[in-house]
Amino acid sequence: NFTASSDTELGTLTSYIEISASNSGDYDYIEGDLGSRGYDGLGSFGLNHAWIGLGGLKMGWSDSVYDGGINGEFDSFGSDAVHFISYTFAGGNGFSATLSLEEADQDYDYMPNVVGKVAYAAGAFDANAWLAYDATVETFHAKAIVGFKASDMITLQVGGTYNQDPAFPYTAGGIYTNGYEWSLGASVKAQINEKLALTVGAQYFINDNLDSATLVDTYQGDDWAIGAVVDYTIVPGLSSKLAVNYKDGDSYADGEFSGFLRFERSF
User: Fold this and answer.
1) Cα separation of 81 and 49, whole Å?
2) Is the pLDDT of residue 47 over 70?
3) What are phi and psi of 150, to 5 degrees?
4) How many angstroms separate the CA atoms of 159 and 88, rounded?
5) How many Cβ atoms sit within 10 Å of the Cβ of residue 141?
6) Which residues have a Cβ under 8 Å from the Cβ of 25 and sit 6 or more positions away?
7) In degrees rounded to 5, what are phi and psi of residue 100?
8) What would the pLDDT profile of 123-162 be if each residue is shown by its tens digit?
9) CA 156, 230, 81, 20 torsion: positive or negative?
């Protein structure tokens, strides 16, 4: 990450760049005298974020203003990285509003998507609501997330999404949808102590908008997902995360498990 900031007569001027690299093993056939097989390495190197900010004005490449979900690794609330220009008004007393013009289809139609967000936070309560118009597929998308810190230990969140039919998932062009007409999710996070946090949650999805075999808006099915996450700080600067998720429903012949164990070093 690279950050540079300075104060000006128009507010704080900031620039931010984030570059990432990753490598993973891909189990695949490797040609040989004995027809043996093994692992090939798959690597990637890319630009995650690059933006300029001046006061409430922000522009560049980053996550859409529509980005946002509930605690956990099981949830699906839509969004992706985009080129954008946005303005955020901070009204004080915990209220803010953002309007963003976003480009996500490589200038397919030269029309920007329009995203709005309003947020409010007061004490233990916070609420966020989004509305997006995808100019490429000409659909509206909306979602809202409410959080409540019930105690120093327990944080509760509830969120819901709506995607206008047909609300195509990423494979068909839309970026603000999770592929279903409606969904409702909730999570509970328990901060056991300063090192250990446990999160459990679930999300229910109503009316799958895409037949994966034909990419036609004909399939109507319901699915659900549950998940659990253990976050543990080993020592300052070194943390670990264990996530286990399970998905099932009309879109799955059998239930599907997924998860990961991650160690992260920060400095």
Assistant:
1) 8
2) yes
3) -70, -30
4) 22
5) 25
6) 39, 40, 41, 42
7) -135, 135
8) 999 999 999 998 888 889 999 999 999 999 999 999 999 9
9) positive
